[in-house]
Structures
1.
Amino acid sequence: MTEPIKTLPLVFEEPRGRGKPPQHLADLTAAERKARLEELGLPGFRARQLSTHYFERLVDDPAQMTDLPAATRDELVAGLLPDLMTALKVQEADKGATRKTLWKLFDGSLVESVLMRYPGRVTMCVSSQAGCGMACPFCATGQGGLQRNMSTAEIVEQVVSGARALARGEVVGGPGRVSNVVFMGMGEPMANYNAVMGAVRRLTDPAPDGLGMSARGITVSTVGLVPRMKQLADEGIPVTLALSLHAPDDELRNELVPINTRFSVAETVEAAWDYARKTRRRVSIEYAMMRGINDQAWRADLLADVLNGYGDWGWVHVNLIPLNPTPGSKWTASDPADEREFVRRLEAKGISTTVRDTRGREIDGACGQLAAVES
Ligand code: SAH
């Protein structure tokens, strides 16, 4: 663990373990990598070469690390670049522009990540936990419960693996780079706060210490763990915050997002506003449109009123997500006419709104569909 461990309220505690994932250079700061090699009786200065291979050249085959002495290469690689996960399956949609990977972690836990290529940008959607403990009834991940938190390096490796595939021209559209990372895969990132912040740091650290991405290209999505949202606002890393609201009233949100019984709509939206105010970053509100459940015109009005209760400088943007089907769910996506009316009402009250172009539904790779099952 590289970040200071803070006392967490009970509900956020890490499930007790089947051991820890192997320690990897992506878990460590540059100084810690050097110290780790020295601890293993290896020369500390090799840490920078290993970091360059991992983050900059995106090399994973030790045979290509020819600047490392042949005699100690295996030891160096075993020390800082242990295998973290194995790709069990890659599924493609949109003629290859969307790729979902099923990963098996060291202890057999399964997670998924999704690469989405758009004209001019590539977004990696990553998991931060194996499973999820938040139990939202419309989300496939929420149905399976939480297996465990992922480590910083396990989170980072999903992005690096996408970066490798792009660099090698394995993704349609030719060689490319990862421009955006969204913590919208499996898990609740704010319930694995320290590892997620470690990953954000590795993604934004300049090469070769990290991937050198812009914090603005990174989105952390949360059900609304208010204390963690406040903590994030004080980190000084201007990531985009997305809040999965899904209902503007406590009665319905208690059902759709059970953590709402602990942090109300008012507290949660206030924390989002606080984030926007402190960072001057516009917050996204995620709202999955469920037919006859949360898509009534009056709820659009109420949502706009709730959001307008705070700043008026365009601090918030609403992202409507047509509900994606999940096994056993009784809910379906809204009628397109209701969706249009919902958008119209939000915009009439000055709230900027988009309907998300959902990718990967046919490979169960869209929002809320990641269940990580071997089949
Ligand atoms: N736990 C975090 C990260 C997951 S992000 C969070 O909830 O924000 C995944 C996004 O997809 C969330 O906004 C989630 O509410 C939404 N989602 C879940 N199930 C969905 C479904 N069946 N259809 C559309 N969106 C869904």
2.
Amino acid sequence: MSKMDVMLVVGARPQFIKSAPVIKEILSKHREIDLSIIHSGQHYDQQMSEIFFRELKIPAPLVNLQAGSGSHATQTAMMMKGLEGLMLKTKPHMVMVPGDTNTTLAASLAAVKLAIPVAHIEAGMRSGDMTMPEEINRKLADHCSTLLFAPTQTAVCNLKKEGLGKATRLTGDTMVDVLHTVVPFVQLKQDTMLERLELLPQDYVLVTLHRPSNVDNLNRLREILTALRKVAKRLQVIFPVHPRTRARLAKLGAFSSPKNGRITFMSPQGYIEILILLKNASCLLTDSGGMQKESFLLHVPCITLRSTTEWPETLIGKANQLLFKPEMIPKAILEIAFNEKLKQTITSLRNPFGDGHASGKIARILKETL
Ligand code: UD1
């Protein structure tokens, strides 16, 4: 039997995480699929890319297109050009793309225009907010795809509403799969890491912020920083800073201010490290999609600094709460950080993101389809 060529295109931090278990599954159990991993180069810093390949044991990409940063149009165009050339040369039977980044959009558009079938991992997420680049990317990617791997029942309903029901398969979320494989390493390494950072479990709030809507407007970012300084008077703040956010915070002179008190800024963390920080935090303040889910799965209460979420499942039992006004951050954080009743409720919630076997289902469906 001749092999089926599948090109998996990744490029940004969350995509490495979501793809890792699918890659492992295909390479270990599906010899009939010839998988080539292509890196768009969207994320290029060691801490934003390489560390995830190493920690999650992802084989090195066949090609790195080194598209790098730029405006949305420039970045997407650079990737499309490189990907088109590669697709024309290697003629894959299918192109697979995870998530909702500019890499997702570039790969699905380049493929569909060459009449190559597209499979989308994490299809059907909707925040309803078309000002978010990710909402545009995920909608367009879904409509370019012939196979839609939906992580939740909500995603299935969203896709049906848009007339995409026939291409949709409910698989569960590959982030549950990867979380399961990494938890033993989290257990193994957590004491050493917390000790090194002089942190006690349940004694700090973890903060991650990188959405343009929060960090690109310096006035809003200044308000957020002021709120974090208030929180730090009561509870230590641990803040791994995304490069986009670092550049904006530097403009505000945030890193050298004596007002920071107990705020610890640090570099972006690897996957095991961020999960250690999250699992042991008293709560999370974030605007990331993935972190909302991970906090839900690790039973850590979360405040999402946005007015919408593409993961409405996480709002059950107030496990995750949407908050838009920065001045409300201190009250909201202090309300959940020490709320034992809330923590008990969260621990008993049903997990709507699947049983940790999403990658197996994806690989099997892929094989059958090909
Ligand atoms: C991208 C995704 C977002 C995802 C996030 C995870 C899009 C539209 N957004 O946002 O959905 O949640 O990745 O991190 O695709 N930079 C570096 N080093 C890097 C990468 C970026 O310094 O390795 C800096 C550059 O100044 C760049 C900025 O970060 O301009 C933003 O990077 P970009 O790839 O445009 O989007 P993210 O904000 O990372």
3.
Amino acid sequence: MTAAAPTKTILRALAGETLPTPPIWMMRQAGRYLPEYKATRSQAGDFLSLCYNPELAAEVTLQPIRRYGFDAAILFADILLVPQALGADLWFVTGEGPRLSTISDMAGVQALKPTDAIHDTLSPVYETVKILTRELPAETTLIGFAGAPWTVATYMIAGRGTPDQGPAHAMREQAPEAFDALIARITDATIEYLSMQINAGAEVVKIFDSWAGSLKGEAFTRYALEPARTITSALKARHPGIPVIAFPREAGDGYIGFGPATGADCVAIDNSVSPEWAAEHVQKDGCVQGNLASSHMVTGGQALVEQTQRVVRAFRNGPHIFNLGHGITPDADPENVALMIETVRNFRA
Ligand code: CP3
């Protein structure tokens, strides 16, 4: 199969092209800040029922595309579906977040289901992707995703979100064999899961390592960089040319060289580093995505306009996908999202 040059703007940026206007999408673009999302979620019953209902999950994926005309749609699902597919109990406590059964030793790792079994749980997600390939506008890129092994492991070990990932760091230090076995199991499952999303029609995949910033030095290399490299190379061997976005959130200096070292086509940048720094140290190696602070979607106004222009200006001499530095929050004003998009698309240097 010979790959034709891509025409969709997101794919062009991922192929290394510098575009006059950066393509744009937004982390958590389908979410509680949108009234139409809340309506569909209540129709589904709850968040997990929405994730596993292909028709409704496709509907909420499409809602921000219809409202704003983003250049990419991100599959509606959650990174914690993989632990659930591996056998963990998973539920969400309203106003608090996810809860899972916990793993602390080798017996817990060995009790997980075999990798092949994940599709029994995850097949509705592949169906969502198939629906989207039919229903998305021709110019919109479909992004699939999964959590990175370290971030997923932090939830599987603690059974919930944690401010400092303490339980996962403790297991890494006190039960390193069991910890490594858990990372290996999640890595294998993630490869199979993303591969099925690609088979179903995902055009790009993104690996979310939300807690990469708490890994330092050798631990960052071993548990953030290495798994991202393993997943990326396995996917590219099976699906030649599939673009990969890596998001080692709050990696700081760890962002430098992350793309070349992992083989990822694009590094997504959070807003704890400046766009000027990221342009100099990360974009020199290829496409970057980011990095407006999501708080501007709450506060709006002239600061939103100025900071949006600052991000576009900083990255304008290389391949760039405009995004927030992290997901949009439920208290955001939908009008501010429209203002951000208008500012990006009207920017002239
Ligand atoms: O970006 C998108 O619009 C696609 C869908 C998506 C969701 N979660 C939907 C969601 C994606 C890509 C995620 C990723 C995700 N999920 C991450 C990594 C990215 C990040 O934000 O750091 C993590 C750590 C999770 C785990 C998770 N899911 C948490 C901690 C929570 C609770 C916190 C919260 O915002 O409520 C969720 C729930 C969740 N995932 C919601 C959505 C829209 C809100 C649930 C609801 O509707 O009540």
